[in-house]
From TrEMBL:
Listed InterPro entries: Leucine_aapep/pepB, Macro_dom-like, Peptidase_M17_C, Peptidase_M17_N_1
Record key words, sorted: Aminopeptidase, Hydrolase, Manganese, Protease
Matches recorded under SUPFAM superfamilies: Zn-dependent exopeptidases
Example of a GO cellular component annotation carried by this entry: cytoplasm
PANTHER family assigned: LEUCINE AMINOPEPTIDASE-RELATED, PEPTIDASE B
GO process annotations (BP): proteolysis
PROSITE patterns named in the record: CYTOSOL_AP (PS00631)
Family according to the record: Belongs to the peptidase M17 family.
Keyword presence, Manganese: yes
Chain ranges of the Cytosol aminopeptidase domain: 309-316
Species whose genome carries this gene: Silicimonas algicola
Name of protein: Leucyl aminopeptidase
GO molecular function: manganese ion binding; metalloaminopeptidase activity
Gene3D superfamilies: Leucine Aminopeptidase, subunit E, domain 1 (3.40.220.10), Zn peptidases (3.40.630.10)
Length: 461
């Protein structure tokens, strides 16, 4: 059985008492004499991640208690209950607690996410403890969310030697086949013929041909287009990155991974919408074919772009894909990209910065993010910075000098390519967990896909 699914309902399961720190003393008092003596003897106080195994009359483990910590612990860590899974022995368990609503859902989803391991290249075993889905949660929905998150993690964690543009295309094709979606791919020199000059320019230096992946699913309901940056490895191009900055560049297709993860959730639940997923998949390599600092590139939109840094390539490939998305004027366009270091400096790895011109949309997303514990933070499309992306000898500058407001100027650059569609939302994500946390092992991660999934019925309603 997959570690990302719940145990079968109706199976005999040992109780796992979820105990808040401020409620531990009261809970201990409810136990019978031997159990109370045992729990007190080991010093259990309900600290976050604390586990005590409770023996039955025969000496075998009959139950367990897991600490949820205090309010500050739960706010800082998220998925506190996920930390318990790997500390329990093999077998089926059931939650015993006063948790309900969003708190119960978070605990159950965290348990599933704690079952993720990346074992493609080395043996890794998921935790052996299993959970019977708690009453009051939609188990199938949580399993769909966990599967979408796992897809995003797998794609990001896969090294570029095994995840180039063609492999990213294969992953999209496998997803399309699973859910009956249609998919078209424009590759190599055909990109020029189809008028995607910036996708071609960024990817032409690599022997692994650039391409635009275009997947469609659903034929009724509001139209949603997801655009994900698929830079499968980023050397920086001729503005070569230093080695310390290049080590994590397998994750530079994290935007593509996240939109595919979100698409998987939406398709698996049969969402009533017309979904389109666009992924410009390239490798920003170095060769005699590399585009150069000082070049001026044409774009699908007709805007010209001066190249002042070849390491600001993600916005170039996204721009051509966004221009295509905008031609259909869907109800909502969402782009996701591991776009700027400036966003990481501003908000760190946990928060997903996002941009929108619509206050109501921002409010819906922020509320959804709080409900599902998937944090986002709104940054502004600050119109006063528009002149910073206008170099004078071309319509746009891909890397304004000065270093100020790097995430904002990148977002403003992208917005220039969405002119017909009334609603556009952009996410400048990190896509990586630097240090393992409950339910989020070190490595690739989904960001904002659960928040978007929760918010989309209202955003598109």
């Amino acid at each position: 059985m997959s570690a990302l699914t719940f145990a079968e309902a109706g199976r005999s399961a040992r109780p796992l008492h979820l105990v808040r720190k401020d409620d531990a003393a009261r809970w201990i008092e409810t136990l019978d004499g031997p159990a109370r003596a045992w729990v007190e003897s080991v010093g259990f106080r309900g600290a976050a991640g604390e586990v005590v195994l409770m023996p039955g009359p025969d000496g075998a483990v009959a139950a367990a208690a897991g600490g949820l910590g205090d309010e500050k612990d739960r706010a800082r860590k998220r998925f506190v209950a996920a930390d318990l899974r790997g500390k329990l022995p093999e077998g089926d368990w059931s939650f015993e607690s006063s948790l309900d609503g969003a708190d119960l859902e978070e605990a159950a989803l965290g348990w599933l996410l704690a079952g993720y391991v990346f074992d493609r290249f080395a043996t890794a075993s998921p935790p052996k403890a299993r959970l019977v889905a708690p009453k009051g949660v939609d188990a199938a929905r949580l399993e769909r969310i966990a599967a979408g998150e796992a897809l995003a993690r797998d794609l990001i964690n896969t090294p570029s030697s095994h995840m180039g543009p063609s492999e990213l295309e294969a992953a999209a094709r496998a997803l399309a086949e699973e859910f009956g979606a249609k998919i078209e791919v424009i590759e190599g020199e055909a990109l020029l013929e189809a008028n995607f000059p910036m996708i071609h320019a960024v990817g032409r230096a690599s022997p692994r041909a650039p391409r635009l992946i275009d997947m469609r699913w659903g034929d009724a309901g509001p139209a949603l287009t997801l655009v994900g940056k698929g830079v499968c490895f980023d050397t920086g191009g001729l503005n070569l990155k230093p080695g310390t900055s290049m080590g994590l560049m397998k994750k530079d297709m994290g935007g593509a991974a996240n939109v595919l993860g979100l698409a998987r959730i939406l398709m698996a639940e049969g969402a009533a919408l017309r979904l389109r997923v666009l992924i410009p998949a390239v490798e920003n390599a170095v060769s005699g074919e590399s585009f150069r600092p000082g070049d001026i590139l044409d774009s699908r939109k007709g805007l010209t772009v001066e190249i002042n840094n070849t390491d600001a390539e993600g916005r170039l490939v996204l721009a051509d894909a966004l221009a295509l998305a905008d031609e259909e004027t869907p109800d909502l366009i969402v782009s996701m990209a591991t776009l700027t270091g400036a966003a990481r400096v501003a908000v760190g790895p946990d928060l997903a910065p996002f941009y929108t011109d619509h206050d109501a949309d921002a409010g819906l997303l922020e509320r959804a993010a709080r409900e599902v514990r998937d944090p986002v933070w709104r940054l502004p499309f600050w119109d006063a910075y528009e002149p910073m992306i206008e170099p004078g000898i071309a319509d746009l500058d891909n890397a304004p000098s000065g270093g100020f407001a790097g995430s904002i100027t990148a977002a403003l650059f992208l917005r220039r390519f969405v002119t017909a569609t009334p609603r556009y939302m952009h996410f400048d994500i990190f896509g990586w967990t630097p240090v393992s946390k409950p339910g989020r092992p070190k490595g690739g991660t989904g960001q904002a896909i659960r928040a978007l999934h929760r918010a989309l019925p209202e955003l598109l309603g």
